[in-house]
Write a structure and sequence with these properties.
42% of the residues lie in helices and 18% in strands. The chain is of the alpha/beta class and 163 residues long. Helix 3 links the parallel strand 2 and strand 3. The model has no long low-confidence stretch (mean pLDDT 91).
Length: 163
């Protein structure tokens, strides 16, 4: 987060047409830095974070485009809302917290066929009537695109591995 604020604050101020996407785990104590700088958040994964985003957006009168992260593989080590919690969580985010939920995001299990998970995500998005799907990374972006992803998170294929 600190790196993004240092690199992008001045650029965003002088070029307000640039749209910045926050991908990766977002801690609630970093939200006050994310809301003013970013236009999208791809990793809303809990109610505390949703409440914090809502509060910070109201302070500066800004609506960020948000993806709810689904723990599509029910993996203990990964963040995200469980499938069976999605409808209630989405409803609370939209109706009570006034968040602009535009889609869903997932990180499928690494050693399994990602396409099955991506197709499941497409059904979940349809169920809550959102149009965007943030799925697919450097290793599985072709399956994601084939399965209806509207946002691909490709980093290492473009920029190389981070150190």
């Amino acid at each position: 987060m600190q790196e993004a604020v240092e690199k992008w604050t001045h650029i965003k101020q002088s070029s307000n047409h640039i749209q910045l996407h926050m991908i990766g785990k977002l801690q609630s104590n970093k939200v006050k830095f994310v809301v003013p700088l970013f236009d999208y958040i791809h990793s809303l994964d809990n109610l505390k974070l949703a409440e914090k985003i809502s509060t910070e957006q109201k302070k500066i009168n800004k609506k960020i485009k948000i993806f709810i992260q689904i723990n599509i593989g029910n993996e203990d080590q990964k963040s995200g809302i469980q499938e069976n919690e999605l409808e209630n969580f989405h409803k609370k985010c939209v109706q009570e917290l006034d968040l602009n939920i535009i889609g869903l995001m997932c990180l499928p299990p690494k050693d399994e066929n990602s396409e099955n998970y991506f197709l499941k995500m497409k059904k979940l998005a349809k169920k809550i009537e959102v149009n965007e799907l943030s799925m697919g990374m450097s290793d599985d972006y072709l399956n994601a695109a084939k399965s209806g992803s509207t946002f691909l998170r490709i980093g290492s294929k473009i920029f190389g591995q981070r150190t």
